[in-house]
Amino acid sequence: YEVSPEFDSQFKKLSQRIETEEWEDIINSIDFISYPKATKTVSEKGFISNWNNSTTEVDKLQYFLDMNVEGYILGVVWLLVIGNKIDNEIYEHSYGNRMRKNLLDNNGHPTYSPYLFEPYFQQYESWRDTALNYAQKSLNKNQDVVILMLDFQRFFYQVDISQKELTRFVDIIIKDEDSQFNEEYRKLASGLTRFVWSVIEKYSNTL
Asked: Which among 3, 26, 77, 85 is most buried, taking Cβ atoms within 10 Å?
């Protein structure tokens, strides 16, 4: 996509489509791709090989959104325009899919960081190690400790949010009386949020 000789003109057309909200072809392109997440069978020697001498039974699938590249670009723009504002409102110790801290500079402009999100495994390790350190301090004082770990299975496939809830949450952020957002920004944020909801709705129904 980015090496196409029409790259610049495609970007100009995409910016115009944000204003007119004409993205029906992007929504109609939405599908999903599935890959094995876990298998029921492993080789007798206990390791996975590319030598397929038997049938492998898939236990769990991981699903991914598939759509025209313009849809992904609009999604990234939404993250830069409003997603980072939503992230600022999330509980500090919620670690899943948090936006990269150096994604925007002090003036709110995008940096050259190629990463949108904080690596979850690093967040998870920090959370786990902090809990174990507190537990160790209690053990050193001869105090009993119980550690419980809970996992919301297939969490992101079960998230239930309505269009009304998403729109209301975004409106609260962009219409804050103390905010410096102008009318052009509010219009952009609202339009992109409608696009994001259309993607969520179509993808959910397709999946």
From this structure: 26
